[in-house]
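sry for the spam today, last one i promise. struct tokens for design, 281 residues
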């Protein structure tokens, strides 16, 4: 999920082969149903990741003693279920995922949303082994990794972007009140989806409650620069005559052009996408 940090299970339709049962011919850019119903195996699927063979990993935001990760192959068939036991909180609630070849599947455990209970996990899809890489978060939500294997994690309640070194040591990379839940019409989450641009010069962060996307310069020494507003749903609505632009902004990713694609959270719906071209510089 380095470039695929989305919190809506339907988004797995993007970039993957559509099963024969889907409508044919494929309508490019149209969200289609993919794979089997997951309610029984992976209740409330949230974070997703894709491995190099096309397997999709859908994490369950379960609030249960065991939360599952459902593995769906590129033909849309459920081929495995990986159980993830809870930590000290007693419940596991899985959010962002990131598959890195040669490393494994990184998964964020929101747990119960209480301070200190959130975890960064590393799952071996073959053996189902689960390793705690780092802990002590409150609401870990989205994650991405840079070329040095540092992992950046958004904490939606603390308003923090954590940086976890390859040895598992976490540190506060960026903290800003604008990354905490702000007044707005979206769900009460602050910093959510995160994505690095192609040159890893900026880290982009979606904030859910107030429908915004920020970006943070990655300085030469690896530290964070000043938070910059990149896109505002309110401004887009006012200038383009749209409604609810960026409402519930959630997971974000870059495509190859590059443009930012983002998903939104809405009750009783799957996902929506809009593209935003990064400004120069």
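last one done:
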């Amino acid at each position: 999920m380095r470039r695929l940090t989305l919190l809506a299970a339907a988004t797995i339709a993007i970039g993957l082969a559509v099963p024969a049962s889907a409508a044919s011919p494929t309508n490019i850019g149209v969200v289609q149903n993919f794979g089997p119903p997951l309610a029984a195996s992976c209740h409330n699927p949230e974070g997703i990741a894709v491995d190099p063979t096309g397997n999709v990993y859908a994490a369950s935001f379960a609030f249960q003693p065991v939360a599952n990760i459902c593995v769906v192959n590129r033909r849309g068939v459920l081929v495995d279920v990986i159980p993830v036991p809870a930590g000290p909180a007693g419940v596991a609630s899985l959010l962002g995922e990131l598959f890195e070849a040669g490393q494994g599947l990184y998964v964020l455990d929101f747990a119960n949303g209480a301070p200190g209970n959130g975890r960064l996990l590393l799952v071996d899809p073959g053996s189902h082994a689960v390793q705690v890489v780092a802990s002590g978060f409150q609401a870990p939500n989205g994650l991405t990794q840079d070329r040095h294997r540092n992992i950046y994690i958004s904490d939606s309640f603390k308003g923090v972007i954590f940086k976890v070194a390859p040895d598992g040591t976490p540190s506060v990379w960026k903290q800003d009140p604008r990354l905490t839940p702000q007044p707005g019409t979206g769900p009460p989450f602050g910093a959510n989806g995160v994505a690095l641009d192609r040159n890893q010069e900026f880290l982009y962060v979606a904030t859910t409650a107030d429908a915004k996307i920020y970006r943070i310069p990655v300085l030469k020494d690896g530290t964070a620069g000043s938070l910059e507003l990149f896109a505002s749903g309110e401004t887009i609505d006012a200038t383009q005559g749209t409604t609810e632009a960026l409402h519930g902004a959630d997971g974000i990713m870059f495509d190859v052009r590059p443009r930012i694609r983002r998903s939104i959270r809405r009750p009783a719906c799957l996902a929506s996408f809009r593209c935003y071209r990064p400004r120069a510089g």
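Helices lie at 233-240. ok im logging off now
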